[in-house]
Design brief:
- With 224 residues, this protein is α/β, with parallel strands linked by helices.
- It folds into 2 domains: 55 residues, Ribosomal protein L30/S12 (60s Ribosomal Protein L30, Chain: A, 2-Layer Sandwich); 156 residues, Alpha/beta knot (3-Layer(aba) Sandwich).
- The chain has a 6-stranded parallel β-sheet, sandwiched between helices.
- Helix 4 packs parallel to helix 8.
- The longest helix is centred in the middle third of the chain and has 15 residues.
């Protein structure tokens, strides 16, 4: 775990579970500063109902990337989330970004799901390894990126060109809109171009996290 060395406290559920006893020994060996045994009800309260498997750890907050530094990267590949409010989809996109292309994930402060416990869990731990960037205004950020020479591609099932037809080896941001509303009008105005994913035509769109995974896979393949 990326935060492992910085964990300051671990609370483990009361009981004789061998797996949890092994975890206690592991935490002790790694000199975790505070190790406590707690009733399950307290762990439930601390995790706000998220399944915790009998253990809760405290670690520093995730470090977010600076946007200006990110857009200056010559090999930039990022997935931009516009209106993805479902933490399950948000977490699944983060997992794909890390697992497929080590791509950055960008979102606006007021237009996407927060980095909640549900998001963390949906990412299956990938959030600890992710390159994350939150910006005050998604439209302003994309406009700045395009002005800096970054290709800003909106994923749109109605686009004239397929994503595979674009040169994705250059600095690129892929923009994914919500399943219900798609990309906002202001974000669309900031795009360099739009592209569709290969589809059979039998359905209008894909699940947001599936679309993100396919787009990242295409970009990653071009960069091999």
């Amino acid at each position: 775990m990326a935060h492992g060395p910085a964990v300051t406290r671990v609370s483990v559920e009361h009981g004789d579970n061998p797996r949890l006893e092994a975890l206690i020994r592991f935490a002790t060996d790694h000199r975790v500063a505070e190790l406590t045994r707690e009733p399950r009800a307290l762990l439930d309260a601390l995790t706000e109902g998220t399944v915790h498997q009998g253990v809760v750890a405290w670690a520093p907050e995730l470090e977010l990337l600076d946007f200006s530094g990110l857009v200056a990267e010559p090999s930039l590949l990022g997935m931009v989330l516009d209106g993805i409010s479902d933490p399950q989809n948000f977490g699944a996109v983060v997992r794909s970004a890390v697992g497929i292309a080590q791509a950055a994930v960008l979102w606006g402060e007021h237009a996407s799901a927060p980095l909640s416990l549900a998001t963390f869990r949906a990412s299956a731990g990938a959030v600890e390894h992710a390159r994350l960037c939150r910006v005050p205004s998604l439209t302003a950020a994309l406009t700045e990126a395009a002005a800096a020479g970054v290709q800003v591609v909106g994923l749109d099932p109605q686009a004239d060109r397929a994503l595979r037809e674009l040169d994705l080896k250059q600095p690129t941001l892929l923009v994914l809109g919500s399943e219900g509303e798609g990309m906002s009008r202001s974000v669309r105005r900031a795009l360099s171009t739009t592209a569709r994913l290969a589809q059979s035509g039998r359905i209008g769109s894909l699940n947001a996290s599936v679309a993100a995974a396919i787009a990242l896979y295409e970009a990653s393949n071009q960069r091999i």
